[in-house]
Structure formats: structure tokens, C-alpha cells
Design brief:
The chain is an alpha/beta fold. Helix content is 31%, strand content 17%. The chain has helices spanning 11-39, 95-111, 125-135, 150-153, 204-209, 227-230, and strands at 52-56, 63-67, 78-83, 116-121, 142-144, 166-173, 176-182. The strands form 2 sheets. It has a 5-stranded mixed β-sheet. β3, α2 and β4 form a beta-alpha-beta unit. The longest helix has 29 residues, at 11-39. The protein is globular, with a radius of gyration of 20 Å. It starts with 10 loop residues before the first helix and ends with a helix.
Length: 231
């Protein structure tokens, strides 16, 4: 399939690797096909409420109210909001969401060149900010949805207010804000032995582990701290 070879590789390795390479090429084609289908989605329903979030803004640790419509930069028509599992009754945030956001914080400065990006949690903004300081997040736009129905309306929580991880994409066109995409794979039953994998596209952890002999592992889950595991 190509002429590249690596030091001391065997014919058996190359044969197996070429079989895998064919599958990887097919996967690349399929990923692009799905991405093209996603881009061609018609716009969904108009947002029925200009939700009021809260965030820290400006000097003096001032908290300000910001509407969904105000999350759009005038030059950008797309808004991606990640729903972070950190409800007001939860002592600590979700470790899996935290793993995603640890990586997304670094990517935020790049994403900001193309789209509007925000992270929404239902806890009060003060709790969200304290945890962000603990993690060293510097670039994410952190928003509290406390007091709104945003989480339930866009399926980032269950009917009993259990928080769910979800990425929602909104588009502003012709003076209206419409829903475009939700990571709905979460709501589809997974194949045996698989997690939902609905937000894997923005989660570097699993994508790296999938390239290793150990893979994801049957029991490994990211933690907020690994100090106890290292002793």
C-alpha cells in the first residue's frame, strides 16, 4: 500500500499492518462521510427561550448575567456548548467530564478562531470557578445554568435532575437562533461492552489509548486525582 518500512519489521508484521491499514483507510472514509452528513443537517428547532446564564466577567470578580444570544460573537454564527456534569447537589464534578475539559481548555484558543465555545454546568458559578482554578483552566468560557431549564430542555439531565454529558451546537441565522446538533448517540443503546462514546470525538484520552496494545482497558476510568493510586 506504500513503501514506508520501519526498522527490523517482519513480513508477518507488514502483512497484518497492511490489513489494518486498509481498515483504517475505510474508517477515515467513513468518518468523513458521517461528518459530511452532519454538516448537511437541516437546522433544528428555534431556541424557545433566550436562556440567562451567569459567568465571571471583568475586574473585581464581578458576576454578570449573559443571555444565550450574547454568547455569539458578531463574526461567528456557530455556538458549541458542552454540558459539564456538576450539579448543585454533587460534592465534586464528574471525573470523565473533567478529563474532557482538561484537554478542551488548551484547544479553546484554537476553536475560538472559528466558533463560539462555552461550558455549562448547573452549579452556582462560584463553585464552577473554584473548580476551574483547581484544574488550572484558563481559556474555557464557564457558564452556570442554575435557575434555567437549559439542561432539561437540551437533554443534559434526566427527569430526576441527574446530570448528563452532552454537546449541543446552535446556529444563528437571519436573526434567529436554532438548534443544530446534539451528541444523541448517548441515548441509543450501546453495543455490548461499549460505553456511549457520544463525545469521544472531543476526548483525546480514549483516542490515544485506542492506538496502544492495552487499549482503553475494561476498568480504567479517569480520576480527579491519581495521588492515592501512585502510593
Amino acid at each position: 500500500m506504500h513503501s514506508i518500512r520501519f526498522p527490523n519489521e517482519t513480513p508477518g508484521y507488514r502483512q497484518a499492518r497492511n490489513q489494518l491499514l486498509e481498515a483504517e483507510r475505510d474508517l477515515r472514509r467513513n468518518v468523513e462521510q458521517v461528518a459530511a452528513m452532519r454538516r448537511q443537517l437541516p437546522l433544528g428547532g428555534e431556541v424557545r427561550e433566550d436562556y440567562v446564564f451567569h459567568e465571571f466577567s471583568g475586574p473585581g470578580d464581578a458576576v454578570r448575567a449573559v443571555r444565550l444570544s450574547e454568547l455569539f460573537d458578531p463574526a461567528k454564527t456557530t455556538l458549541a456548548l458542552y454540558s459539564f456534569m456538576y450539579g448543585p447537589d454533587e460534592a465534586r464534578p464528574c471525573p470523565l467530564c473533567t478529563s474532557i475539559l482538561d484537554s478542551l481548555d488548551g484547544a479553546a484558543v484554537h476553536l475560538d478562531q472559528r466558533i463560539n465555545l462555552g461550558v455549562v454546568a448547573k452549579s452556582p458559578i462560584e463553585r464552577i470557578r473554584e473548580f476551574a482554578k483547581e484544574r488550572g483552566w484558563r481559556h474555557l468560557r464557564l457558564l452556570s445554568s442554575a435557575g434555567t431549564t437549559y439542561n432539561s430542555d437540551y437533554h443534559a439531565e434526566t427527569s430526576d435532575e441527574k446530570q448528563l454529558p452532552a454537546l449541543n451546537v446552535f446556529v444563528r441565522r437571519d436573526g434567529q437562533i436554532k438548534h443544530f446538533y446534539n451528541t444523541e448517540l448517548l441515548y441509543v443503546p450501546a453495543d455490548e461492552g461499549q460505553d456511549g462514546r457520544h463525545v469521544d470525538m472531543i476526548w483525546p484520552l480514549w483516542n490515544v489509548l485506542d492506538l496502544t496494545p492495552e487499549g482503553r482497558g475494561a476498568t480504567f476510568r479517569p480520576r480527579l486525582s491519581y495521588e492515592l493510586a501512585q502510593k
